Amino acid sequence: MPLDRSYTDVEKEIVRRLSSKPDLAGLYNTVRKFENSQSLLHAVAEFVMHEYQCASGKNIAQPYEGMLTISDIRCMRQDFEEGLNMSQQMAERILLFRLVEVYERQIETFKPKTLCFKLNTCAMNETSSSPFSKVESQFEEIFDFEETEDIFTKKYLLFPNYYERYGYVTLVINPGAAIKKKNKKKSRYNSKECVMVHIGNRDFMMRYMERVVPRIEKLLELFLGLYAEEKGYLELDKSRIINLLRYTDTLHRNDRPYQMIHLMEKMLETHHPLSDFDTILKEIKTNSRTAFQIDAIRFQMLSSIEIAIKEGDDEPRKHLLGKAQRAGEFYRQRRAQLEREEAIAAGVPQTDSEGRPLSKRFKPNEVFTIED
Question: What is the pLDDT at residue 147?
Fold first, then answer.
């Protein structure tokens, strides 16, 4: 039976949205009728499937918006065939999407005391010819005196960063304690210390400290400048800042974004104040269900996005989601079959003592409940 080369309205709209990338639009034209085609998935890899935005709020430092592509959804489904892996860009898009929700769900008691920043805010994880040029330029675009709250009145500042494909969080406690002021009156911060707690992967922590932390300090100086005249701020005294390092377990790179989300959830959705960071981190390390919780975050994110697409009015997104789901299931079954054949050839048992199939990994349709 000859292949149907006619265009549906949905296919025409997909071609139109791909028109800014003629090579991909041409590839999609060629393979649009195929099922389980890696070429088709490549052609629509950056097709926007979900968009969102967030306003600044009581504990959210800046408004921002983002989007997720079909490749991001495939990564959440763990469809890693034919070279698909979690890139830095994919991880950042996935993190941005979920962190919005995490910030909004912070315990109300602590919201007035906390200010959470956008992931990699002001390009603090990027390189440039001048070390702080991107931080300065983006700060001027995002923050101003009229709309930006004085961050030094907060007790906690949270700077999440995704650097070298690892998640890091810098928690600043009592930032106002690091400021020199014009007046000689005793400050309410004098009896306290400004502490920067850097949480993340041990192997790359020193590189993070060299690259990102100076940019966080620069950002604090820029914020200080907004209110220097009104509040009598003179300078950020870095000698008053105590730096502490805390380390997280090293997971596979495809799981690290969800590990970072899990960390942020445990820090913000808890009745522990952020100053009890060691208690929070100990609970994560000693909880036998942490790995299940991290995988449950991935599944919940995937489910919420797929439901939003299916219940929405965007037919091209629905069409491509169906293509991606069917292709993912096809390749997943093929991979499982190859694994079984290799295991049988190697003499590995396929059932337990009661004849039940053994499984080496969670299946995408398994749901796990996140428990405290």
Answer: 75
Q: Which domain holds residue 170?
A: 51-280
Cβ(28)–Cβ(18) below 8 Å: yes
Q: How far apart are CA 83 and CA 101, in angstroms?
A: 30
Write down the pLDDT at residue 333: 83
**Which of 243, 263, 280 lies at the terminal end of a domain, its last residue?**
280
Residue 358, pLDDT score: 61
Among 296, 311, 288, 291, residue whose Cα is nearest residue 364:
296
Non-local CB neighbours of 170 within 8 Å, separated by 6+ positions = 158, 159, 161, 196, 197, 198, 199, 212, 213, 216
Whether 120 maps to a domain, the answer reads: yes
pLDDT at residue 210 above 90? yes
**Confidence class for position 357, pLDDT limits 50, 70, 90:** low
Q: Which two tokens stand for residue 165?
A: 């494909």
**What pLDDT score was predicted for residue 261?**
97
Q: Which of the listed residues 231, 254, 280 is the one where a domain comes to its end?
A: 280
Query: CA geometry: angle at 101 spanning 65 and 196, to 5°?
Result: 90
Q: Are 320 and 42 in contact (CB under 8 A)?
A: no
Domain-located, residue 59: yes
Section 122-137 average pLDDT: 86
The one-letter code for the residue type at 132 is: F
> What pLDDT is attached to residue 352?
61
Are 76 and 18 part of one and the same domain?
Answer: no
- The CATH number of the domain holding residue 263 is 3.30.310.130
Identify the residue with better confidence: 35 or 50. Answer: 50
User: pLDDT at residue 189 above 60?
Assistant: no
